[in-house]
Amino acid sequence: MAFNFRNPFGNKNIDADGNRIVEGKDEKLKRQLENDRKRQEFLSRFKLGKHNTVERQLISLGMFSGFLLVGGTISYRGWSTKQHATLSSQAIYTTNFVFSRDAALKGEVAGVYRTEDNKTGYLLLKFKDPSQVTAAAKNYNVYVSAVDQHLSGDITGDILVFGRSGYLAIRVYAPDGLPNQKWDFDLGMKNSISKTDGQLSEGAETEGAGEMFKKNNMIRVYANMGAKNATKLGNNLSSDVDQLFYEMVGKKTEKETKDKIAEETASIKTNLARIDEYRERLTRLGYEAPAVPEFIKGLSVNKKNELVSKYTVPGGFNIKPGSSLGKDGYLSQFIVGKVTNDTIENLHIAKRIEAASDGKVGDGLTADLTKVRGTMNIPFEKGKENDVFTVTELKSIGSDSVLKISDVSTGTSTDNQISAAKDAQELAQLYRDIYQSVQTIQVSYNGSLIDLEESIVTEGKSVSQASGTKHFIKWQQR
User: How many Å apart are CA 410 and CA 412, to the nearest integer?
Assistant: First the structure.
């Protein structure tokens, strides 16, 4: 077919000579009817015509639903990814608990742990008042299930009660590895020492287990032992209960106590530096700097910011710098021979006698000092701290003139004398502040570390354990 240069694009409204064709009314109407027919034929093929209202609405609804489905799928994937990330990392879901039939029995989740090989998990609970609960593991049972899904893997477990410490651990063994699942732990206690009337606690009727929580004294705790944020433990702790108790309980307490010691030591370091400052100020004012008390001279802070003291205050424990429970312990530094309940008790009596103003405790209790190390050794008479850590007079440089601090007063003394007296009083206060800080560290904080190790030794030996399907029940499989 020849190419028409006058109508290159094949416009139907232009003839072969390039002239515009004028369409009459009949032709125009006919063309419109033909277009309508073709349109209806197309719509009928997909049931979208004017006689297919229901079909048209369904398809419109389907298209709208399709948009929702695509958007919803994208949103769900984002939500699901976020939820999976949360599930993978979150170990603790319940922070506090109250027993269903005894509102006096309360506690908190102290931690969720798992071994490095991911085959053993621990849920550690701490009772608010240990005296209210039984220390016998046989009086507890626990029901374990997965939340909203089938519990993965074959698991077994047991219950550990650490003496009278108030700590209870639910231990789970998973040979195939702890799954990344949120689990439901329902712990029941048969006997308690609480003196309440056993009435239902608030919310017990809606605890989720229904009648079970109404009839039995129980708590419900949610945790994920396979979570990323579960605290890691060594693989060999199952047989070493002392070390297990330290890792789960003692380690955190020890760190908190050492943080307090570090803060107090920083204060001592600052005050020791200020002593030199005040002594120099007195020299500039024309007075000899008073001698530093022997106790203060026996103090220093090493490069690791640890306090080094030549002396031990009454009732205090002068623990060696760098010591720790996990390394060499504390009790062995103060007990001659084997560390036992008897030698620990003897140590405590010795320290109580030291701290007593008259050197007497109880009904004439005595201590065998041949079995105790690190007893009190201060370079002054006990109880005379205020006399030692004070400045009563200042000697002028180059003369025999002495300024008595008690004689200095506004109006009768010179500005130089008033400034010197004030600096002398500040210096004496620094001595007293430093001594009090050392007391705080040696008696209070170091004493807490001694008590902590004692609890590990005694609770480790008195741990109660209950195992078997009577005490550890895997249930509610979905």
Answer: 6
pTM: 0.69
- Measured in degrees and rounded to the nearest 5, phi and psi for residue 123 equal -110, 110
Q: Is 256 helix (H, G, I), strand (E, B) or coil?
A: helix
Nearest to 314 by CA among 466, 442, 163, 183: 442
What radius of gyration, in Å, describes the C-alpha atoms of the chain?
A: 41
Give pLDDT tens digits for 265-318: 999 999 999 999 999 999 999 999 999 999 999 999 999 999 999 999 999 999
Contact 354, 376 (CB under 8 A): yes
pLDDT 10s digits, 153-210: 889 999 999 888 889 999 999 999 999 999 999 999 986 655 554 555 555 444 455 6
Q: State the Cα angle at 123 between 118 and 128, rounded to 5°.
A: 160
What end-to-end distance do the CA atoms of the chain give, in Å?
Answer: 76
Token pair, residue 302, equals: 């090493």
Q: Look at residue 23 and give its three-state secondary structure.
A: coil
DSSP 346-381: HHHHHHHHHHSTTS--TTT----GGGB-S--B-SS-
